[in-house]
């Protein structure tokens, strides 16, 4: 097996991204951190391809199935013949390697301690089949998961940003590093190649913890706070945006399945040039499970599934759903930090009701109001 770096230089990486990738040895465990827009998901795919060249099975993992689809599509343009990389959710990977009887806790998620004991009992049984694992959005997995993969993988590379922890079972960068062992390497990738300066500036207002990243050089229009009289008004505005920007990918982020269903019903009747798409984590297959994320048009997605994605235009559809939440709460601020940083060009924060939600107050200078 190759143990030294054998970088594959790809023209779609910036110099900083190439330097980060080339500095990672092909052995050992590593944690790579970076802000939204720094290219962590793209680097995760490239890292997986590099590791696959060693001849060992390589799996690119994410907690989100929607992110898995995006990573799968990215890998299609990168993989080298004879060195395939599998894109999988953590859920599917555990079931594949530990069986459908894999022990679970009362909340329905896996019992990482019991699985770690199983992995320890079979350690070294089939060393050649032990995979390299690359984890994207690794902050959304618990330390218990990392203690398991420390025993179940030839190497583990984690790409993460602890300012984007949205799940109930998450980890800080320190917790991930500790769980993977003292010898775990740490690296950073900087830069924001996704957002405009105006969008990144608003996102930074909601950031919790960590140090501020340098602002992007690219400028654009100010984000908009817009009041909607109802779902029909919201759907009409989304349809107007889609008509004005026919090549755009428009992400509509919602906080309830009811809002998602209402919007889809209205958008399907609005004569859009491209059929709107809706992602539902409850769907097992079909149009609400497998999306075409690269094509233009409207995608309606719950905020829990938006991590790792990006859109030309983002509409946060129902900010009023957070009106009862303490506007200083870290979980709320983190959620808006993640949602805002999905936008490449344009951002709308929409709300309904009689009073502007408290967490959208005092944003003069960062936004304009309509």
UniProtKB/TrEMBL annotation:
Family matches, as Gene3D superfamilies: P-loop containing nucleotide triphosphate hydrolases (3.40.50.300)
Source organism superkingdom: Bacteria
InterPro entries: DNA_helicase_UvrD/REP (IPR000212), P-loop_NTPase (IPR027417)
Protein name as annotated: AAA family ATPase
Species this chain originates from: Streptomyces glycanivorans
């Amino acid at each position: 097996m190759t143990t030294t770096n054998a970088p594959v230089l790809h023209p779609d990486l910036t110099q900083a991204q190439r330097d980060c990738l080339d500095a990672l040895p092909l052995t050992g465990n590593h944690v790579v951190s970076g802000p939204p827009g720094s290219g962590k998901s793209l680097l995760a795919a490239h890292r997986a391809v590099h590791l696959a060249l060693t001849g060992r099975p390589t799996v690119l993992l994410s907690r989100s199935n929607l992110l898995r689809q995006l990573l799968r599509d990215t890998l299609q343009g990168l993989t080298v013949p004879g060195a395939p990389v599998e894109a999988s959710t953590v859920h599917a990977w555990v079931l594949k390697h530990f069986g459908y009887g894999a022990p679970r806790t009362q909340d329905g998620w896996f019992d990482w301690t019991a699985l770690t004991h199983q992995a320890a009992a079979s350690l070294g049984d089939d060393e050649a089949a032990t995979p390299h694992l690359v984890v994207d959005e690794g902050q959304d997995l618990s330390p218990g998961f990392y203690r398991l993969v420390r025993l179940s993988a030839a190497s583990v590379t984690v790409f993460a940003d602890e300012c984007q922890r949205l799940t109930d079972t998450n980890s800080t960068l320190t917790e991930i590093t500790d769980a993977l062992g003292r010898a775990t390497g740490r690296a950073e990738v900087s830069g924001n190649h996704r957002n405009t300066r105006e969008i990144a500036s608003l996102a930074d207002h909601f950031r919790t913890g960590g140090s501020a990243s340098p602002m992007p050089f690219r400028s654009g229009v100010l984000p908009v706070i817009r009041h909607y009289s109802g779902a029909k008004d919201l759907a009409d505005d989304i349809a107007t945006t889609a008509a004005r920007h026919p090549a755009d990918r428009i992400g509509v982020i919602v906080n309830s399945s009811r809002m998602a269903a209402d919007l889809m019903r209205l958008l399907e009747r609005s004569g859009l040039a491209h059929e709107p798409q809706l992602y539902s984590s409850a769907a097992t297959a079909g149009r609400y499970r497998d999306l075409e994320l690269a094509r233009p048009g409207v995608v309606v997605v719950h905020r829990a599934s938006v991590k790792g994605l990006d859109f030309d235009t983002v509409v946060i559809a129902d900010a009023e759903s957070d009106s009862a939440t303490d506007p200083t709460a870290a979980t709320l601020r983190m959620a808006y930090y993640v949602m805002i940083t999905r936008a490449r060009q344009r951002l709308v924060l929409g709300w309904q009701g009689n009073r502007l939600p408290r967490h959208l107050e005092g944003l003069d200078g960062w936004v304009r109001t309509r």
